[in-house]
Amino acid sequence: MPAIRGRSCRGFCLLHSAMIHVLGGYDMLVSAYVDGFNFYEASRNKSWYPYGWCNWTKTIENYCPGAEVRVKYFTSDVSPRHRGSRARQDLHLRAMREVARAEVIKGVFRERNVMCRQCNEPMRCPKCGKDTKMTEKQTDVNISLHLFEDAIDRRFDWAFLVSADLDLVPAVEAALRRHERGQIRILFPPESGPAVEFSDLERGLRGRLRLLHLDLNRMVRFPDDLPARWGLALPKHWRERAGPRPKVIEDNSEPRTSKGQRWWES
Asked: pTM (2 decimals)?
């Protein structure tokens, strides 16, 4: 997998400052499109997993100081059957809406049978007996449509796409084709690299598309004590130095009210 060439955002910030100077105080418009589940899957076994408790608006602002930033966060609701996971997700989405002022756009999860690729017969895990898996639907289409529509309507000068999903390549290409002056920065999760299709697209759109790694030094987490505003507590495995996601989530790591009840029991 090709590596992303090392680049500094200092040049981007200098360019932005020059634009403001030349245009007499014009605030550059920045739209960010964050694929929440894609970032979660990339982070769950990594030491930087707690960065999932991320204020994406503040994070994107660190890449373009002084710009007017708008964030769209794409995800899907976890099944209510998984009450702990759903409660934790609701906590993060509340922070995204009320603190980061992001627009949350939802797809859906669908349960699918696991099928053998050779004979197309159902398969069952020999260890746990599970024969189905949850698959997220609509998110890549939602991101593509919002990016494309915003490009047509000139709702951004720069766009930031936080995702490594290869299905978004056509949308990126179409958005830049329709918005002749627009530029897009794709932020890949740390320790990951772009598919060759992204690299080829960058070479073909030289100067208008940049591939970058998310810089942990630029990422801004919500404060660990933020849930206390709502009478809740941050899950233990979300704390700043908690490390990789544990395989088994303890009950006491689930969001709780100030009285110690689990969120969904209060």
From this structure: 0.80
